[in-house]
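We now fix the convention by which a protein and its fold are recorded. The integers have meaning only within a learned vocabulary of local backbone shapes. A record is reproduced here so that you can trace the correspondence yourselves:
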Amino acid sequence: MTTLSLHNPASVVGPLVSPVRGSFDWLIEAYQASPRFLDLPAATRRSYAGVLRRVANYELKDGRRFGSLPLASITPGAADQIYAKLKIRPDGSKRLRSAMLSMRVCQRAWSVAQRRYSSEMPALNPFAKMGISYRPTPTRPVTYAELIRFVAMADRLGDHSIGTAAMLAYFWLQRQVDILERLSWEHYRPADAPGIVRIFHHKTHEMIDIPLVDTDGSPLWPEMCERLDHTCRRGPLIIMRDRPDRLRKSYLPWREDYFRHRVADIRAAAGIDSEVKFMGLRHGGNTEGADADLSDAQLRALSGHRTASMVVTYARTSMQQRRDGARKRRDARENLLE
């Protein structure tokens, strides 16, 4: 059994030349060149690449990197050892979710490479059937009052776009990646349907039309529409950085890491609980809908969460359900302010 000794992974540099065929480094290269990897979203590819690099850069007691090991020498016991080391941070705290993800990605990479190079790969996948599980911490929903505080602080700090992004997540239940990378001005009041906004959900591949006005002409999302109608258009995307890039002298889209750090800064400045995450805004919007007594069908029609059977059942009345759901949510917010 291969014995592992945990050193600082960040200090270990991967191979600068082509990996030895049949090594774990070679497996990573084969997986990252496969359609199964290349077809993943860019953020997922970055995450998986980082995970595999971390595993490959773990150092053995004899000084070798884990990535240099021949695949035939990597046993289930070695996989168990590296999982045990990955799940403990240097300060002794646990990071079970990250460690489990590492094992799942290694399992996937091994399986993909095995299908392509079956004659060169061991039959046993040592990362399979490890019997590990993780119960995620529930995401705390952001309340409407917290949303108002967050947006006010974002505006005060000159981060208008982040306040707008928070409102988009809360009101129209869109995920961060879709808000930052996909939501364009063409989706808001499109020429062919100026009374709607088109919201895309990459997880379900749903593009849903959300009505902006009720049947009597009253606005269903007055706060959101007023915000967008007074937002400067700095590019094709609705959410662009609020200051020109120092080098390019132009406004750029937000990068995920920079956006996350600014969200944390604004949250702290607003005095909001540090456990509150951006994804909690979407959860908060869904919670508002449930508290406003939306039916399950109305919630799903607004959020884009629909099973195959529900598509057949509810597709014909989805626009009316979205209008009814939007009205109930608007009325519930107005009642809070009375």
User: Anything to note?
Assistant: The first helix runs from residue 24 to 32. Strands lie at 196-201, 206-211. Residues 94 and 225 are 43 Å apart (CA to CA). Residues 1-16, 308-318 have pLDDT under 50 and may be disordered.
